[in-house]
Each structure stands twice: as C-alpha cells, then as structure tokens.
Amino acid sequence: MAEMETRMKQTPHGVARLALAALVLVAGVPASPATRAQTRDAAASKWVEETLRSLSPRQRVAQLVVVAAQSEYMNFDGERFAELRRLVTDEGVGGVLVRGGSPNEVAALTNELQRLARVPLLVSADYERGLRMQMKHGTPFTTNMALGATGDTEAAYRQGKVIAEEARAVGVNWLYGPVADINNNPDNPVINIRSFGEDPRRVAEFVAATVRGIRDGGALSTAKHFPGHGDTAVDTHIGMAAIRADRARLERVELVPFRAAVAAGVDAVMTAHVALPDVAGDSLPSTLSPRMTTGLLRGELKYDGIVVTDSLGMGAITRGFPGGEAAVRAIKAGADVALTPPEPKAAVDALEAAVKSGQLTEERIDQSVRRLLAAKYRLGLSGRRFVDPAAVNRVVERPENVREAQRAAEASMTLLRNRGDVLPLDAARAAATLFVVVAADEDEEEGRVFIPQVQRRAKGARVLRIGPRSGAAEHEAALAEAQKAERVVVAAFVKRAASKGTVALPEAQAELVRKLIATKKPLLVIAFAGPYLVRQFEDVPAYMVAYAIEEVAQGAAARAIFGETAIGGRLPVTVPGLFELGAGLRLEARK
After folding, report:
1. Is residue 589 part of a domain?
2. Radius of gyration of the CA atoms of the chain, in A
3. Counting CB atoms within 10 angstroms of each CB, which of 160, 363, 483, 509 has the fewest?
4. What residues form DSSP beta bridges with 575?
5. Are residues 500 and 386 in the same domain?
6. Predicted pLDDT of residue 5
7. Which one is catalytic: 235, 267, 310, 336?
8. What count of other Cβ atoms lies within 10 Å of the Cβ of residue 96?
9. Which pLDDT belongs to residue 12?
C-alpha cells in the first residue's frame, strides 16, 4: 500500500486516485464509473471548501488576479525577483503568466513560485503554437492558419496534446489557447495567421480538436477572444476596436467556434477588448461588459467555466480605465480572473474596496474563487504542485514530436499560382535563379533557415537579403542581379508585431517586389506571413503561402520549392478579388 501511495502521489490526480484506491481495496471489487466520479467530486469539493474557508476576504480577491512573471534567469534572493516574491507571498495572487526564458528557467521559476505560494498557483502562458511562442526551445509548431491549410483536425489535436505535455513539464498548467477567432478581415493586424481560418464550421472543428488535445495533455485550455476578434482592423494592444455586427451575424459567424469549444469541455474563455455596440448597446469593451460576459457567454451559451480577461495592461483598457478600475469592472461584468493588471497591488486594493463598499458581494467573489480552486484541484495541484527539473530535457522537443511538427508545416504549403511553371526547382534551375529574401523586420529569424537551406541545395545560386535598413543602392543591385538571372524567387517575411498595427511589407520593399515582377522573369513570391500579402503585388506570376516566419515553415518551404515534398495546402481564408476560400494547386513531389 505504501508503494501504491508513493506512485499515485506522483500523478496529476494523485489525491483523487488515492481515495479511489482505498475504496477499491476495502471493498475488494473495482469501483463503478459512477462511484469513481462521486469519489473525485467529494474529494474535490472538500479541498475547495477547506481552502476557501482558510482565506481572508483580501486573500480571496487576490486569487482573482494573475500577474506577469519574466522567466529569464533571476537569483531568487535578488532585487529582480523581490516584487514577484512579494506579490505571491504578501498579496497572495492566484496565478502568474510566464513570459520568455528557457524550458529549464521556466521550470526553476515555477517551482520556486509554487514553493512560496500559500495556495497552489495557476501558472499560465501564451503558448498558442507551443513553447516557442515565448522561447527558443520547444517543439517547433507552425501557426494555426497553416494548420487550417492542412485540413487535418487530427494534427490540431496532436499539437494541442504535445503543447500541453511540454507546458506541464516546465510547470505551466494553463494555456491561453486555442484562438477561436474567425479571421474574416484581411486587414486584421493582431489575429491574422493566429486564426485557423474564416469558415466558422471548419474553425470550430479545429478549436474543438485542440481543446481535446490540451485536455488529454494535462493542461487547462482557453478559447479566445470572446466574442470574436477576427473582424477588426485595430490592434487592441494599441487601442480599442469595434465590430459592427448584429446579433444574427454574431450567431452565424463569430460564436460558432466558441459554442464548439464549450461543447468540447473548454476550461476557460478569454474575453476580448472589443466593443460590439449593435449587440451590447454600448461602447464598452466586451471584457468590461456585463451584457457580453454574464448575459451572452454565461446566460445564452450556458458556459459555467472560468472567464479570464485579456491582459488589462493593453492599450484598449489602460487608456480609459486606469488603476484598479478595470479589474473591478471586469469582475462585475462576470470575469473570474483579472489578467496582468499594470498595477497588481492597486487591482487587489480596488477589488477589496469594491467588496467593502458593496459593489461586489462576498458571494460573487467566492463563486469565482471556487471555480479557480476547482481547476487547481483538477490539475492535481492539491497533491503535487512541483515539476521534476530532470524531466524537462526528456519531454521538451522529443524527436518524434519535432517530426510531426515538420510534417504539418509541409502539408500546409499552399501554391496559389504557378504561371510559367516556376516550381518545382532542381539544382540546375536553382543555380540560375536569384533568391531575394525581403525581411520587413529587424529580426534575424527572417531568412535564417531558408537561406542556408537554399544554398545547400543550389551551390551556385545567388542569394540576397534586403532588410528594412537596405537603401536604394541595394535595391538597384537586386534589380540588376534579377536581369541576369533566369528566374527569381522572393521570400517575403513579415512578422506580426503589436507595435506596427499592420502585417504588410513596408512600401519601399513592396515597390522593390513590384519592380522585380516588372522584369518579366518567371518569378515566385513565398509569403512567410499571411496569404493577404499578395494584395501588394496582385500580378505576381507565382505565389506560395508558408503562413509563418518560424524555422519550421522556412525548412518546409525550401523542401517544397525543390520538389522534395508535395504541395497540397488549401487556402483557409479568402483573399478578396484574388483567391477564394479553398484555393490551392496540387504539385507532386519529384520522383
């Protein structure tokens, strides 16, 4: 029995399983599914209620606050860690959002924070496409829109499961994904390739598959950004966005993936800093709107899980709701978690004052605390809150998972035009081809893998890199080289960046591409960005979409253009006036 206890305590649901094992041993017969469920529910309820009673009124409101935690190396006795230590030990916040670092640094940080916390912490992260959203390591998954181009919902399930397993290995137990937004606005600068596409039914299928994968991988999932952030042209990191959609359109389009997520058992829903005046009747962001959170999400969609705000430090909120006001308004609207308020102590102070003044009742606070504690129990944190640092290097970036990610990226490559049969290339044709990497950002990732992959396959090929600081002389040199080449391949990289508010090439670089097209050479543009990039040069002879700047997409694109892998992705969005939803040419691999 002692050996059984030790083994079970090491599992995510160790406490509930111990109670069940004891029941089975005493009775001498296997427990029925109903009995097992009752045992789990009773154990969970007991822990939740005992923990709730142990918390003071201020400690209870602090459970509703999640604070940011930079994960790069810090000495835990040093000044850089002091404020985070204070928020966990003195304020008793309920969770942290980790950013940056490496897998081993995150594991060390989360273990230390869990050691300091009186109540186990929900440790969350924006790992929409895995750990590499925040660090240099982790299985290198491509973007959601690329997954949508594969048409393979099983790949989405597997990706969700692997991301959750790697997250749990480093101490992250709550994932802010999947993105359930429908990208039906080509000018959307913040969602774009983070969305699975524009077809509500297909997006819903990918969202539900990802939710199931994350659950089976042992983490909490989050459908975001409710009630939909796809039909906007404003980045809410910068300012407020509004969607002029009525209730019928919302039901027909935006709400479809969220309903699917709820049906699939999603653990949390994140609200958007987006106003829907024709639905809510006001200009409040949905995050602060009782009509959207309590009325629509909880009332009409019958959702009773965790509601978390998008970051309260984003420009859409901070410009109109300073200090702790946003946290109070969000909880009053129906949220359970105020995510990363810019002044965490001020948020806790404001929530405590709101309870004392009667703006928020103790019962309302306890309702949210119970949801959060139940999630912590469900994750197994009541029995084991720490991770094994020695296991990190065995779980993160398993070779079989890396190969799976590469296959998904390869299947996503979408060829929309191939006039003049630019593709596929072989070594001889590539040697007479000019390759131009057009990098919109000062980011070494843009072309870092693609360039050596081309050079390895075509020793004599000319490869140029045009960056945002390249001047007229470099542009003219590229045009001169193009005149001497038999064909041209342009690799266009545009990183989604909150500060830019756009996902287009800078105009000077777009004009260079147009001039290269004007040489009348057979020319291919590969969009290492969203498919909408082609609107800047509509008459391009050949066009392929890779959907991401990440190395997995760069390697997949290189293999595709050289005919080593088939090209068969289908466009998961419409490019207005150019390509319809589902467009894509099939190009078999060279034998």
Report:
1. no
2. 25
3. 363
4. 579
5. no
6. 39
7. 310
8. 29
9. 39
230: CB partners within 8 A, 6+ apart = 181, 182, 183, 184, 185, 188, 191, 195, 198, 254
What is the identity of the amino acid at 3?
E
> Both 71 and 192 in a single domain?
yes
User: Regarding predicted confidence, which is higher, 19 or 58?
Assistant: 58
What SS3 class is residue 567?
Answer: strand
Average pLDDT of 157-161?
98
Query: Under DSSP, is residue 343 helix (H, G, I), strand (E, B) or coil?
Result: coil
37 and 114 in a single domain? The answer is no
Q: Which domain holds residue 19?
A: 2-42
310 is catalytic: yes
Can you spell out the DSSP letters for 372-405?
A: HHHHHHHTTTTT-----GGGHHHHTT-HHHHHHH
386-426 residue pLDDT tens = 999 999 999 999 999 999 999 999 999 999 999 999 999 99
Whether 357 and 236 share a structural domain: yes
Instruction: Give me the CATH number covering residue 220.
Output: 3.20.20.300
Mean pLDDT over 474-488 rounds to: 96
Could you give the CA distance from residue 469 to residue 474 in angstroms, rounded to a whole number? 10
* Residues 377 and 419 occupy one common structural domain: no
Output the pLDDT for position 318: 81
Q: Are residues 376 and 461 in the same domain?
A: no
Q: Work out whether strand 462-466 and strand 122-125 pair parallel, antiparallel, or are unpaired.
A: unpaired
Judge contact between 179 and 224, C-beta under 8 A.
yes
3-state DSSP helix/strand/coil % of the chain, to nearest 5: 45, 15, 40
Chain centroid offset of residue 319 CA: 25
Same domain, 371 and 507: no
Active site residue 475: no
**What is the 8-class DSSP label of residue 468?**
T
Using DSSP's 3-state secondary structure scheme, residue 122 falls into strand
CA distance 521 to 524: 10
Average pLDDT, the chain: 91
Q: What is the mean pLDDT of residues 429-441?
A: 94
Amino acid at 419: R
Domain count, the chain: 3
For residue 514, count other CB atoms closer than 10 A to its CB: 14
Catalytic residue among 13, 229, 237, 273: 237
In sequence order, the β-bridge partners of residue 526 are 491, 544
User: Helix (H) and strand (E) counts for the chain?
Assistant: 24, 16
Question: 530 in a domain, yes or no?
Answer: yes
Do the domain assignments include residue 123?
yes
Mean pLDDT value of segment 109-118? 98
Please give the helix or strand (H or E) that residue 40 lies within, else none: helix 33-53
Q: For residue 31, what pLDDT is reported?
A: 65
* Mean per-residue pLDDT, 32-37: 68
DSSP 123: E
